[in-house]
Amino acid sequence: LAKTTQPISMDSYEGQEVNITCSHNNIATNDYITWYQQFPSQGPRFIIQGYKTKVTNEVASLFIPADRKSSTLSLPRVSLSDTAVYYCLVEGTNAGKSTFGDGTTLTVKP
Amino acid sequence: DVKVTQSSRYLVKRTGEKVFLECVQDMDHENMFWYRQDPGLGLRLIYFSYDVKMKEKGDIPEGYSVSREKKERFSLILESASTNQTSMYLCASSLRTSGTYEQYFGPGTRLTVT
What we know:
The complex is a heterodimer.
Chain A: E1 9-13, E2 18-23, E3 32-38, E4 45-50, E5 53-56, E6 61-64, E7 70-75, E8 84-91, E9 104-109
Parallel strand pairs in A: 1-9
Antiparallel strand pairs in A: 2-7, 3-4, 3-8, 5-6, 6-7, 8-9
Chain B: E1 4-6, E2 10-13, E3 19-25, E4 31-37, E5 43-51, E6 54-57, E7 65-70, E8 73-78, E9 87-94, E10 104-105, E11 109-113
């Protein structure tokens, strides 16, 4: 199973950039890296997905080095509403063979 | 928008009861998943289905079974509920198309077994 490792928790302040790194040493050639956000009492929701180098959308950027054994989610100028748990998942054509890690609890302070 | 619905948000059952958790998705997704989420343990995969009548065990299948008779519906069954199955249960679905592996999650069912 492609297991991921993330920091358990991170603290930040409003307006700062937050970078959360995920390790996935067993990533396979066909796997993509996906990040999810989860608020209390809700299901996780998709933030961003990438295969290599850099991907950017309206809410985040995803940086993936050439060896693809890690990835970094970057949240620009966080606000209090970004307080949530963030999960990194490696998934591909072998769906169901990847595992969510324990997630990173991000706390944004005023 | 993709919609994944779960039959109940909250459910209370007694030990030994047979429990059915239903999940329905409306986007013709091939893959469907059942996870449970407990404090400090993240999301753990119970079962996965990639097509009608097809299923594969995840990380923690013991005490659970699943049924997928129609593409849009994936049921999780607790044959004889126990207190250690008290948890949040999350259903998800996704496409099998290469390059689009995003999982869409339902709101979750918080099950309490007394």
